[in-house]
Design goal:
By secondary structure, this protein is α/β, with parallel strands linked by helices. Helices cover about 40% and strands about 25% of the residues. Strand 9 and strand 10 form a beta hairpin.
């Protein structure tokens, strides 16, 4: 069976993007070329791989099975090619990262611009995803997670701040209207803006002071998913809708501008910063090796 590897890559891109037009934008090819590539692949394997409608494109059962197997395989091919490229004087290749939204917002903006300036032949693709994904199956080289969600068979390197805090804040208008809580338990009497992991329950609010640890589940008029609804919750807090418990780094610009006022700051919970993680059982691409070396050097500054 003479299967064209480029057609395989196009199929994977279309299936992940959910459409020919979306995949063609990312790859720089035309939608018609992507469609023809998938047709050739389906002809070669003798089975339909994608359900096509005027509104959407989705893998068939056979296509989904193939996509699951292709992620690690295509990542390994890319890694092998990057190993060859590493013999060049300057590292080159594509680095694919899967990161939580908070890392895309507060960690990578300080790291990626100087990294890309130092390595102009490296291209970085970032997917911001708050689901816990298998980075190999997703076709990524590495990801960012916090310690409690790291898989045991991964190599982990600290990236970004070594300590972070959850901040509690509200607008001056809200505090004038409802008063300033004097203790975390008083939050049960306030309108609280809640964050939840995708598909999960609202995240409990945790506080710590002088060895005392509290966890509360306050009421509130608005709940949003971590990531894609985070900016909505911040905007609602600024508008005076309620009190928000969120990453201090994310809220810092609004705290500095005065749009949000800190509340119960001595109770803010501290927690370890995130880690870059990647598989230990594969060749490290030139791009990933350069990135790991870069953040290790950054951490020693």
């Amino acid at each position: 069976m003479a299967v064209n590897l480029d057609d395989v890559r196009v199929f994977a891109a279309v299936a992940r993007a959910g459409g020919f037009r979306e995949a063609s934008r990312a790859s720089g090819t035309s939608a018609s070329s992507a469609s023809e590539a998938v047709r050739r692949l389906e002809t070669e394997v003798g089975v339909r791989l994608l359900h096509r409608t005027t509104r959407s494109v989705a893998p068939t059962e056979a296509g989904a099975r193939l996509l699951d197997r292709l992620g690690p395989a295509l990542a390994e091919i890319a890694s092998a090619l990057d190993v060859v490229k590493s013999s060049r004087d300057q590292p080159a290749g594509t680095l694919r990262l899967n990161v939580p939204t908070v890392a895309a917002r507060v960690v990578l903006p300080r790291i990626l611009p100087p990294f890309l300036a130092a390595y102009p032949d490296i291209r970085v693709e970032v997917t911001a995803d708050d689901e816990l994904v298998d980075i190999l199956a997703a076709g990524c080289d590495a990801g960012i997670r916090y310690a409690e969600t790291l898989e045991k068979d991964m190599i982990a390197v600290p990236i970004g701040p070594r300590e972070q805090r959850f901040a509690l804040a509200a607008s001056a208008a809200y505090l004038e209207r409802r008063g300033r809580p004097s203790h975390p338990r008083k939050l049960l009497e306030h309108a609280c803006l809640r964050v939840r992991f995708p598909g999960g329950a609202p995240i409990a609010w945790q506080f710590e002071r002088d060895g005392e640890v509290l966890k509360i589940d306050p009421p509130g008029p608005l709940v949003g998913n971590l990531g894609n609804a985070s900016d909505l919750l911040v905007a609602a807090a600024i508008a005076g809708t309620g009190i928000l418990y969120f990453f201090e780094d994310w809220l810092q610009p609004h705290l500095e501008s005065g749009a949000l006022k800190p509340i119960l700051e001595r109770w803010w919970l501290r927690f370890p910063g995130p880690f870059l993680y990647y598989p230990s059982r594969r060749h490290m691409s030139a791009a990933l090796r350069a990135f790991v070396d870069f953040i290790r050097a950054d951490g020693r500054k």
